[in-house]
Design brief:
2 domains; two-stranded parallel sheet; two-stranded antiparallel sheet; 8 helices
């Protein structure tokens, strides 16, 4: 764990040094105008306050995409997240300063949709994430990272897998995770 923290600190310092040496970027006038138009549109909205949709997203994610999952609730969570995206488009900023927080629920919807999509795809239980309809881990099929890509309509789709048990036999970093996972579950030691 300590080496992870040290590596993170080194990466952070390196990024800060590189940013300090980089020239100040010139704003793209089209991008600035687009953001100003978006802000004016948000300020003109008369719908519910954004905090209400934010609370609904949190509640939905806990109820349907939390640590205990099943196919039906994950699929309905994705549908409900899209409905909340529509509701968010009508929301008005709440109290002073919350206009800047308008992007938070948009990001919550994006991340929630990615999590629900990945969880729906991964038909197994692993660690603290249980699929009631797939209660066992399946290292052969699912000891990998899912690669998701944004489609033209903005929704995520699973584009492939990185790593996997077959890659683990080749000795990359995934093989270390396999040995650690087996050790925790009482399986063979690598």
């Amino acid at each position: 764990m300590g080496d992870i923290i040290v590596s993170g600190a080194v990466a952070g310092h390196s990024a800060a040094e590189a940013a300090a040496k980089a020239p100040e970027p010139d704003p793209c006038e089209d991008q600035v105008a687009e953001e100003e138009e978006k802000l004016a549109s948000v300020l003109a909205r008369k719908g519910a306050p954004v905090r209400e949709v934010t609370a609904e997203i949190r509640d939905l994610m806990w109820r349907k995409v939390g640590p205990v999952r099943r196919r039906g609730t994950l699929a309905s969570a994705r549908e409900e997240l899209e409905q909340l995206r529509g509701a968010l488009a009508k929301c008005r900023p709440g109290a002073r300063g919350s206009c800047a927080r308008q992007s938070r629920p948009e990001l919550m919807l994006d991340v929630g949709t990615v999590i629900a999509t990945a969880a729906l795809t991964r038909e197994e239980s692993r660690g603290n994430h249980w699929r009631l309809d797939h209660p066992q881990p399946d290292n052969e099929k699912w000891l990998c990272n899912l690669v998701l890509q944004r489609q033209p309509d903005g929704s995520p789709r699973v584009a492939g897998r990185a790593g996997g048990a077959h890659a683990a036999r080749g000795g990359g970093p995934v093989s270390h995770r396999l040995r650690l996972d087996e050790r925790v579950r009482g399986g063979p030691r690598g």
